[in-house]
Write a structure and sequence with these properties.
single chain, alpha/beta, 2,3-Dihydroxybiphenyl 1,2-Dioxygenase, domain 1, four-stranded mixed beta sheet, 5 helices, 8 strands
Amino acid sequence: MTVAKNTICLWFEKDAEAAARFYTGLFPDSAMGAVHRAPGDYPSGKAGDVLTVTFTVAGIPCLGLNGGPAFRHSEAFSFQIATDDQAETDRYWNAIVENGGTESDCGWCKDRWGISWQITPRVLTEALSAGGGQAQRAFAAMMQMKKIDVAAIEAARRG
């Protein structure tokens, strides 16, 4: 088994395996890896409990660690998922929010484990990259949204 040179480690209270299975079932280019059980008791668990889970989410290698309640996730870390259209944007957003997550602003939402996700249509990224009036109008439109509305971004970009 080859271990990636750089892996994102996500700290969970106790549900790393459930989170990994949710992510890998939702996003393409994702897969479950190994589930490792604790060889002995540890501060937040017992011997035999799931300790770590390896998985890939949208091509990014990750390690889920069941470390207990000591640390919480924040918006300082998020996964940004580029989407091609409104249907793909809706599918990811709705899956995260309807599975115990919460909506935030400007295309951000948080899953039930506290991980932040930016569900970002490519049309928004392209509009912001264009600069000038297109970027200003698209940015102003985005600032009024929770889930990104592709048609509204396209309309704002056109002026």
